[in-house]
Amino acid sequence: MKLLTVTALIFSNIIFGQIKTDSSAAIQELKYSDSVYQSSYKKLIVPTVFVAFGVTSLTSDALKNLNNSTKYEIGEHQPKPITLDNYTQYIPAAMVYGYNLAGIKGKHNFRERTIIYGTSQLISAAIVLPLKHLIKEERPDGSNHLSFPSGHTTTAFSSAQFLFREYQHQNFWLAISGYPVALFTGIYRTLNDKHWVGDVVAGAGFGILSTELAYWLFPFINKHLNKKDSKSFTFVYPVLQSKSAGAGLVLNF
């Protein structure tokens, strides 16, 4: 059936003079029919529940008590602060590139997966940074009013979801290997007294959502880039935290 579909697309394009020598456009269209690029309410259930929990924690007395009791318990058994969570947030994304370098191929090539990951980071930054400044929730340690949602957790779970989507059909165990790292990041944001439980749960939801949106947008972004008929491209994406900012740069030539 797929072969017949490709053949039909090629024949149609030849008739209308859209392609002359190959079937690349038809194959690309067939590729974009994959479910990973399709929007679905089922994909929104988990991130929506997480975000709803986090938002509710801002006003619900019961969830505020949960935040405060968690902070109290952490204070009673406060572990030594570590900064490892500043780096673990990126590990799941790095694992995608590491697996590919090791010869375990994911769903996309280097160019495509970098566009997808960069897009997810743009989306998460566009969500998280304005919310921090609009909501102005004080951090548990009182250092500032940029607690909600957790940016580190958002990045960690967007990275973990990226790893999952790249390997979900190739190797299930590799696909889910980023979630424990993301969970570690979120937990240590609370243990380091930087975030409430609600901030972390909401961050996880926003992170998953950002990556899902990036995959849904990828066919449109990639088509736009291909229209320019350029063999090279430059892609810049932000790396933003509450007290620091940076950028990722990708060159393909």
Protein model, in words:
The protein has helices at 2-15, 24-31, 41-56, 61-76, 85-88, 91-101, 110-135, 151-167, 172-175, 179-191, 197-227; strands at 233-240, 245-252. The chain has 253 residues and is mainly α. Strands 1-2 form a two-stranded antiparallel ribbon. A hairpin with a 4-residue loop joins strand 1 (233-240) and strand 2. The longest helix has 31 residues, at 197-227. It is globular.
Please outline the helices and strands.
Blueprint: H1 2-15, H2 24-31, H3 41-56, H4 61-76, H5 85-88, H6 91-101, H7 110-135, H8 151-167, H9 172-175, H10 179-191, H11 197-227, E1 233-240, E2 245-252
Helix pairs in contact: 1-2, 3-11, 6-8, 7-8, 7-11, 8-10, 8-11, 10-11
Strand content bin: 5-15%
Shape: globular
Oligomeric nature of the chains: single chain
Overall mean confidence score, pLDDT: 83
Individual helix count:
11
Distance linking N and C termini: 36 Å
Largest sheet: 2 strands, antiparallel
Structural descriptors:
253 residues; 11 helices; disordered N terminus; mainly alpha; 2 strands; globular
